């Protein structure tokens, strides 16, 4: 999987990693090579361009964490951008409805749809202990229904008995009826394929969807077809309400263009990957693991993650030590704010701290507000930050002027600091420093 893309990228990063320092030109040069590698992997042009722009911006502006090299840092940034490009989170099936949960499988002929239907049925019945029924709605291809029946016997999954002469909608209705009567948890509908996306096919998909009300509509596409796979997905997504994509033949895909572009171009998550002809060769699609396979630099990525973790722990410990002495000044607040920005904003932190839940002012502060807080604290003297109690009316006016804010805002900041330091004193009484430090990590 992804061998050729992997090789290209590791060539680029080997050059970077050896260096002690990286200039902006080095980064830009490397990113040009990354762009070529992505295009050769058949990644859609706008996706490759966005990716490279994003990584360049982050890499050029990045603060290099102590104890890692700039090259290692770039690898980590590329890794994170790849994970995002692949969809960030693992996309799960949503089957929590009144049974039977209907999964409609759609796709072109030869994409691997019938095989994948059986693979998924097997997975759900074996791993998740669901009672699964499969039905083939493919009346166009003579042996299609029989093919699914054979796969059903192989996998020990029930298939709907074949009744010749029924339309796809009639079969769907009969399948739904049987699934309800016999208390199946899941009904998998294998719809007919075509050679191309055409109106007749789409009309059939819509009619079947209307008759069976699927919770998941999964498009099966062949990853070996690269950009065509993405275009097919775009075509289907415009017509039926796709909930996800299954990419087949990932085992033979050295380039990876379909996997990399799918999410960005169609907005649809890849939920599973077919990785072989064997009936259990179906894997959940985990963006972070796939990115790891593409880059093949898991060691570097975890090294940078560990280093970042250490820095955060050191900061948190420093803070905890100060608080242990009953001190929490505005310099500490400033440090906190930069940590909060990393952690998802002040609101997130406020909700984690006991005594601060629902605290007005803190919970609603957005990113821009954090920047204003920063500005106010920068306009204070070191002494003011260490001893906020000396900030009188005159000083407040000066600070507000210096930071382009208002006295009210300065008051709000001081109030927030006071409430935080009180909350921390309360926490100290509870002996919760260890807990607090772990929350900051
Ligand atoms: P359909 O026309 O879309 O229903 O396609 P089929 O399910 O009949 O599959 C066509 C061929 O692709 C079969 O020989 C499958 O074994 C093969 N196939 C399906 N998925 C995969 C996969 O993930 N990897 C590999 N190597 N072969 C696959």
Automatic annotation (TrEMBL):
It is a peripheral membrane protein. Involved in targeting and insertion of nascent membrane proteins into the cytoplasmic membrane. Binds to the hydrophobic signal sequence of the ribosome-nascent chain (RNC) as it emerges from the ribosomes. The SRP-RNC complex is then targeted to the cytoplasmic membrane where it interacts with the SRP receptor FtsY. Interaction with FtsY leads to the transfer of the RNC complex to the Sec translocase for insertion into the membrane, the hydrolysis of GTP by both Ffh and FtsY, and the dissociation of the SRP-FtsY complex into the individual components. InterPro entries: AAA+_ATPase, P-loop_NTPase, Signal_recog_part_SRP54_M_sf, Signal_recog_particl_SRP54_hlx, Signal_recog_particle_SRP54_M, SRP, SRP54, SRP54_GTPase_dom. It is found in: Cell inner membrane; Cytoplasm. Its main location: membrane. NCBIfam families: ffh. Belongs to the GTP-binding SRP family. SRP54 subfamily. SMART domains: AAA, SRP54, SRP54_N. Residues 269-282 form the SRP54-type proteins GTP-binding domain. Composed of three domains: the N-terminal N domain, which is responsible for interactions with the ribosome, the central G domain, which binds GTP, and the C-terminal M domain, which binds the RNA and the signal sequence of the RNC. This is Signal recognition particle protein. Part of the signal recognition particle protein translocation system, which is composed of SRP and FtsY. SRP is a ribonucleoprotein composed of Ffh and a 4.5S RNA molecule. The gene is ffh. HAMAP family: SRP54. Its EC number is 3.6.5.4. GTP binds at residues 107-114, 190-194, 248-251. The keyword Ribonucleoprotein applies. The keyword Chaperone does not apply. It is an enzyme of class 3 (hydrolase). Gene3D superfamilies: P-loop containing nucleotide triphosphate hydrolases (3.40.50.300), Signal recognition particle SRP54, nucleotide-binding domain (1.20.120.140), Signal recognition particle, SRP54 subunit, M-domain (1.10.260.30). Pfam families: SRP54, SRP54_N, SRP_SPB.
């Amino acid at each position: 999987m992804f061998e050729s893309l992997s090789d290209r990228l590791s060539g680029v990063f080997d050059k970077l990693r050896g260096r002690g320092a990286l200039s902006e030109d080095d980064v830009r040069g490397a990113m040009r090579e990354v762009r070529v590698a992505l295009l050769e992997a058949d990644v859609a042009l706008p996706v490759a361009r966005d990716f490279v722009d994003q990584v360049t911006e982050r890499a050029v502006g990045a603060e290099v964490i102590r104890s890692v090299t700039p090259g290692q840092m770039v690898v980590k940034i590329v890794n994170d951008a790849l994970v995002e490009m692949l969809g960030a989170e693992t996309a799960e099936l949503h089957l929590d409805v009144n049974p039977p949960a209907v999964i409609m499988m759609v796709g072109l002929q030869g994409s691997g749809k019938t095989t994948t239907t059986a693979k998924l049925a097997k997975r759900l019945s074996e791993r998740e202990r669901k009672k699964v029924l499969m039905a083939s709605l493919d009346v166009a291809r003579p042996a299609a229904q029989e093919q699914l029946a054979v796969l059903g016997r192989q996998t020990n999954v029930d298939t709907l008995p074949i009744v010749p002469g029924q339309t796809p909608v009639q079969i769907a209705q009969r399948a739904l009826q049987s699934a309800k009567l016999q208390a199946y948890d899941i009904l998998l509908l294998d719809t007919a394929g075509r050679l191309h996306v055409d109106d007749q096919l789409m009309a059939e998909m819509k009619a079947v969807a209307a008759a069976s009300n699927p919770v998941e509509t999964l498009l099966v596409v062949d990853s070996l077809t690269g950009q065509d796979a993405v275009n097919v997905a775009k075509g289907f997504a415009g017509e039926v309400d796709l909930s996800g994509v299954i990419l087949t033949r990932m085992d033979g895909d050295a380039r990876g263009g379909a996997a990399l572009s799918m999410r960005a171009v169609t907005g649809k998550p890849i939920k599973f990957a077919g990785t072989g002809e064997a009936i259990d060769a179906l894997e959940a699609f985990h963006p972070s693991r796939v990115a790891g396979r593409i880059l093949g630099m898991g060691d570097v990525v975890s090294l940078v993650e560990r280093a970042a973790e250490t820095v955060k722990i050191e900061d948190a410990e420093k803070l905890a030590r100060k608080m242990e002495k009953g001190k929490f000044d505005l310099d500490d607040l400033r440090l906190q704010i930069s940590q909060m920005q990393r952690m998802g904003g002040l609101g997130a932190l406020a909700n984690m701290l006991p005594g601060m839940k629902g605290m007005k002012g803190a919970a609603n502060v957005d990113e821009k507000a954090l920047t204003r807080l920063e500005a106010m604290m920068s306009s204070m003297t070191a002494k003011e930050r260490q001893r906020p109690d000396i900030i009188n009316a005159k000083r407040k006016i000066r600070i507000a002027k210096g930071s382009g804010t208002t006295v009210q805002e300065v008051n709000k900041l001081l109030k927030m600091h006071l409430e935080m330091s009180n909350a921390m004193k309360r926490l100290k009484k509870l002996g919760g420093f260890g807990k607090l430090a772990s929350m900051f990590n």
